Amino acid sequence: MAERAEAAPRGSFALSGVALLAVAAAVTGFSAILDEGLWGPTVLAVAAVAVAAAAITRRLVRRWAAVWAAAAALVAALLALTLLFAADTALLGIVPLPGTAARFAELIAAGELSIAEQSIPAAADDGIRFLMALGLAGLAIMVDGVLVHSRRPAFTAVPLLGILAVPIVLAPGALPVLSVLATAAAYLLALALHRPAASGGAAAAGRAMSVAAAVLVAALLVPPLLPPVVVGSGLPGVGIAGLVTGINPVLELGNDLRRDTPVEVLRYTTDAGGGLYLTLSHLADFEGQTVQPVVGGEAIVPGRVGPPLWLGDDVATRTIDTTIQLQNVRSRWVPLPAAPVEITGLSGSWVVDPQGITVGAVDGTFRGGTYDVESLVAEPTPEQLRVATVSEEGLDRYRVLPPELEPFVVDTAAAIAANAEGPSPYDQARALQRFFTSGDFEYSEEAPVEFGYDGTGADIVAEFLRVRAGYCVQFSTAMTLMARSLGLPTRLAVGFTPGTRNPEVPGEYVVTTDNLHSWPEIHFDGIGWVRFEPTPSRGATPAYASDDVPAPGEEPAIDPETGEPIEPTAAPSSPADPAASDAPDPDASDAADPLDLIDGGSDGTLDGPSAGGLVAGSADARPLAAALLALLVLLLAVPGVWRAIRRAHRRRSPDALDRWRELRDTARDLGLAAEETSTPRALAEAWAARWVADPAALAALAAERAALEQRAYAAPRGRAAAADIAVLLAALRASAPRWRRALAVVAPVSLLDRTPADERLPAAPLAT
After folding, report:
1. Which of 726, 730, 719, 732 is nearest to 654 (CA)?
2. In the chain, what are the helix, strand and coil shares in percent, each to the nearest 5?
3. Are 56 and 147 within one domain?
4. For the stretch 356-387, what's the b/e string if a residue is b when 16 or more beta carbons lie within 10 angstroms of its beta carbon?
5. d(CA 729, CA 463)
6. Which phi and psi angles does 282 have, rounded to 5°?
7. I want to staple 764 with a disulfide (CB 3.0 to 4.6 A). Which of 10, 473, 609, 712 is the partner?
8. Is residue 89 part of a domain?
9. pLDDT at 438 > cutoff 50
10. Which one has a higher pLDDT value, 563 or 35?
């Protein structure tokens, strides 16, 4: 008997096929969070091999079929993963060797980092595809095993909902409806093909259908209730919360800046005499609502990087030594001060962008450790910057404007440049910086989310100029594109502001996620990349870019004691002035002359709260809370709905056994006599003792018991006609206290009965 029970169930091949179909349908939902590509066939191939191995094994073995099928599926999945992702480390390209495990570990680490660094939609690189193939193979094996071997096929909804939950959580509202419908259809097909004997007959089929309906309703109704995706917002650059911070060089900084509790990223000591900006990556190519990092370079073993290629002989320089200790950072890019010439303490192979300079890992990530950096920092004077040109060859990519940039942005930049203190590129750059820092713009980490321009691409600039509120991403992106429109080669840098002095260690600075920052850099011939700071109340404006720099032809102030010119000091912001604040009105007609708009410009006052300071708020959680509450209510309603559907089917069933089962299950839900070992006569006597004063219920109970006995003993023609058991159900409910009746509606315990349906009541004898 046991051997027969372990044999492959009838139709197991069909069930395995439907299990794979359901997983494939659910996986299509990942199109909401992944770029187009061939990731689907790769990840599904592993799942298909695993499920096929399980199905074949069931046909070949009779004892312990479920165990052997699962083991075969796991082995097949391992071989498939090896063939697809680590063939060069395996025997014959498919049999894993020790090097295969190391490759898998590298792929897992790369996948985790890629998830942390990329925005939605993400590119399905090798790391992400490996994680997907591994996870989906496991879920496919689970779905197949539950569907074929379990008496509760409805539980296959759990792993399927787990797959659908990934795009629902990462991109609320973006899950394709077709993916939901296809998954629900495959799920219903699986329930329909499941053996009736394993699922409890027609009644259990009805409850399975009710669960399927509830799952379908949840999948269709809950995602739209979640907060919609803010275009460009993407994944937060966060690994394990509070432990590892994955930094996204594509400037998804808002999520980290909006942290309630900042996370320490690194510490550094330097002989610079003050804090340093640390750069992770430089970004150059604007596409829609994203901006891509500079790519290319040559692989080197870190050491002597060499002096900056662009530095002229007449520009003063200073050597700075810095020691950086990473605490909770995980990135392909190494935080570095400007213009590094020598790096020691790193290991492995790295790629250097010689124009940056940016250092990034060829393979793997940089998660921790200490390294030393020697930098050769240029210290140009304002006059050197004022006479510098911006015509050096090889920088055309930093002048390119994306086609989707609104003309209003270009017109605004031209109007600002026309009112600069001088005609030089340096004067134009300072005028752009002053436009943002003069008081007309507000620093806010919430406004971009609220108004839908929380991104880095060209699409967000015009809206940012209209709202005039944002954080470093919006300020730096806007100045970068406006400077490019003036012909200035400009790029974005992403990294950290100097951080906070550690009072316990002289010369040491502590950098947290609150110091994540982005800023524009403009290239001047013979000087190189020069940092500007358009974000009000963040970072520090370099002395050469401050408002204290004398205008062209203006004599600098003289110190009366020394007789020397007074050097300009850094000024993070200054009062509004006509040249900076009188920019075109973004709401005016596109046909208007920008110069005419300047004449009637702003008065320099703020319409909202005063700018400045970090906004330590978070996005409105009420929509998410409402969605979670709705999901909770829906889940709580599932048992009651399931039980109601079962009751409706049994009440008018022509089979007296179905009706008697309903009476016993109702009694069990209400806490009345309903023992599995009790005979129908014993149960009837126990219930009748409660209904002495209810002759109608007693008569109905006697009739129902007689019908049950006739079902067991009488010929088919002699069986009693179907009866409605509503009177008996009402009598049972009246016998229980009110709180128990309420509990029976929301949490019917009869659903937990795992006894096979055909074994609950013997067909005979009934009267013993």
Report:
1. 719
2. 45, 15, 40
3. yes
4. bbbbbbeeebbeeeebebbbbbbebebebbbe
5. 64
6. -115, 140
7. 712
8. yes
9. yes
10. 35
